[in-house]
Amino acid sequence: MIPVCRIEDLPEGESLRVEAGDATAAIAVFHTDGAFYAIDDTCSHQDASLSEGWLEGCYVECPLHAALFDLRSGEPTCLPARKPVRTHAVTVVDGMLYVHPAVRTVPGEPVHAAPEEAVA
Ligand code: FES
Known about the structure:
iron-sulfur; dioxygenase activity; oxidoreductase activity, acting on paired donors, with incorporation or reduction of molecular oxygen; single chain; binds FE2/S2 (inorganic) cluster; mainly beta; 120 residues
């Protein structure tokens, strides 16, 4: 579990990149549509940082070639990306946002936490 930031430090519509350590690639964390989402930061098409992309609801558009990824599943919805990026669980505990990089998810299954949600 990686501490990201206090939830007030990641306002709605914003994103940030989290270095997850040597064993895991960097993770992009987003606050959009009233929830937090985390996916691999590197686009599955080439080497672009998705945390620098543009948010459209629960989707992020890659800043390099405009592939659109669903933050809930990691699946691309258009070319040129063909492969999904991994999603990561997000929890909020006492106002602190955490990412769980080891958790793999089932495509199509949402993994997000509302700001007021706390996980023991
Ligand atoms: S690097 Fe993301 S779509 Fe090409």
